Amino acid sequence: AAQRVPLMAGNWKMNLDHLQATHLVQKLDWTLRDAKHDHSAVEVAVLPPFTDLRSVQTLVEGDRLSIRYGAQDLSQHQSGAYTGEISGAFLAKLGCTYVTVGHSERREYHAESDETVKTKVAAAYENGLTPIFCVGEGLDVRQAGTHVDHVLAQVRAGLDGLPAVKAASIVIAYEPVWAIGTGEVATPADAQEVCAAIRTALAELYSGDLADRVRILYGGSVKSGNVAAIMEQGDVDGALVGGASIDPAEFAAICRYRD
Ligand code: PEP
Q1: Are 255 and 8 in contact (CB under 8 A)?
Q2: Catalytic positions
Q3: Distance between CA atoms of 183 and 203, rounded to whole angstroms?
Q4: 7-255 topology per CATH
Q5: 10, 79, 146, 202: most buried by Cβ count inside 10 Å?
Q6: Are 69 and 53 within 8 A, CB to CB?
Q7: Ligand 1 contacts CB of residue 175 (under 6 A)
Q8: Is any atom of ligand 1 closer than 6 Å to the C-beta of 243?
Q9: What does the pLDDT look like over 135-191, one tens digit per residue?
Q10: Domain segments of the chain as ranges
Q11: What is the reported pTM?
Q12: pLDDT at 7 exceeding the cut of 90
């Protein structure tokens, strides 16, 4: 994983209003500064609710912070009669770098299909955003032992028709649904098995060179106490962190997993 810069991305889910968001980002920045964190060695990003983004942008741009940010979802449409939806164009204007696409909570509670996820990946690129494309199996699939096939089918569906020039910058997050918010973390070997299979699939779909460049994150109950062992795996290039990312000291410790 030497040539890939690890990414620690905090998915706040539906937590923290815009005032709390400002406090968290400030505390995170101070903590990382104190530790002399090198953002070019381990990239740090937060993914707040939509309504926080303008405040986070003001703070990050105004104080020239190195923390990056993005959104948790976007519409597959550019504009128009889609009440309640948020366009990738709006997110780009707010300085977002990333947008999560196909998180398991969107797939489950908003019935997002592989087809929807594919159009959202394309919509992210259309607006210059980098998708953090989420895949992962439920407990039933894991117990049946077909998790690798299941995840690779999601990967192929989400990338269908995506040209290499775009796919080269994608971030893929492997998040076994049974490990999200449950406190049950996959073993480092479990995470490595699926992340390695995703990389092999990228090499087949595109090229070995592209597969070597794409960052593949693990997500599911990552904490400061378990992150280092997961990051030791050769095909794990970072973490998508939910619950532990809304505590700035804990998230900073995750970002500092090498200490
Ligand atoms: C997530 O929501 O992407 C996630 C991994 O959550 P948690 O870290 O809380 O399991």
Answers
A1: yes
A2: 103, 175
A3: 32
A4: TIM Barrel (3.20.20)
A5: 10
A6: yes
A7: yes
A8: yes
A9: 999 999 999 999 999 999 999 999 999 999 999 999 999 999 999 888 888 899 999
A10: 7-255
A11: 0.97
A12: yes
Of all protein residues, the one whose alpha carbon is nearest to atom 8 of ligand 1 is: 242
**The two structure tokens encoding residue 11:** 């998915």
User: Looking at ligand 1, which residue's alpha carbon is closest to its atom 2?
Assistant: 242
* Exposure letters 28-46 (e unless 16+ CB within 10 A, then b): bbebbeeeebeeeebbbbb
Tens digits of residue pLDDT in 19-37: 999 999 999 999 999 999 9
Interval between CA 250 and ligand 1 midpoint (Å): 14
Cβ of 11 closer than 6 Å to ligand 1, yes or no, is yes
d(CA 252, CA 25): 11
Residue located via tokens 């439920």? 138
